[in-house]
Amino acid sequence: MSTSLQPRPRKRGLPPAPRLDVPRLHATGDEPPFLRSKPRARVKRVRRGLVSRLALGVQLGALALALVGGGWIGVSRVLASERLHVSHVKVRGNHFLSEGEVRELLGLSGQESILGLDMEALKQRLRASPWLEDATVRRALPDAIEIEVHERAPLALAELDRLYLMDASGDLIDLYGARTAAYDLPIVRGLKGLGAEARRERAERAAALLSDLGDLQAELSEIQAEDSGDLQVVLRGGGEVLKFGAPPYRKSLEAFLALRQKLTERCPRAEYFDLRFRDRIYAKEPPLPQPTGAAAAPGPEVAPTLNAPAPQQAELAH
Questions:
Q1: Where are the domains of the chain?
Q2: Is the pLDDT score of 310 beyond 50?
Q3: What CATH code would you report for 82-151?
């Protein structure tokens, strides 16, 4: 029995889709190229040995020495330049010391470079002089130094083993002699044989008196610093002796000078006039000589009070 193959009837509708041969991307399990990250290349560090490190250190050290040496040579040439040698020294503020004496204190030879000078060391050399209280030193390029000094001002003559010029702080400045004879100053006594602290305390008291008197200190010839803390002064001219206690001093001296003639006429034998009391002046006179067996004489005459136009009675100091 024979059979014949007949084609199957096609279904009506859309035509069959064509078959496309598409490669299977995930068949091997790999990611697509546009999703894969690029592999990082590993850089192997080269470890230097001890010899290499030493060689590098030597090279760096040689470079540093070359730089330092070159810089030092350059600096040395600049410092050695004759244009920078100190050729001029300008001094201001000096009254007693001359410019030559100030230059001598500096101790410069003229061959020093102005850039290599130690300004602080120069100041210390200047301050070593007892005449200089302070000094400033400045460079003035290319070859000058400017100096401004502040000298101590002598206020009195301090009597020790010899006479010395003394300033307002009680510090000794210089010997009184031919070079300093132009200073006509009062003499401060009572400083001999004392320790440094006691001498300074008395000198400061006398200096305070002179500073307070101002221009009236020209009326004084001598000042005696006493153990009690008082000051006894001798006036120029008549040689009257005044005793001062605590400041202020100027007002008391002005009052005495206003009554000076009357007081000396009233009390010609006065040993001293006591100004230690407010608004009063007491005259201390020696006792009158008495015959043998006679009664003691009454007290000395009374000095007028400061605020009275005419003499008035007051208690005397003995």
A1: 82-151, 156-258
A2: no
A3: 3.10.20.310
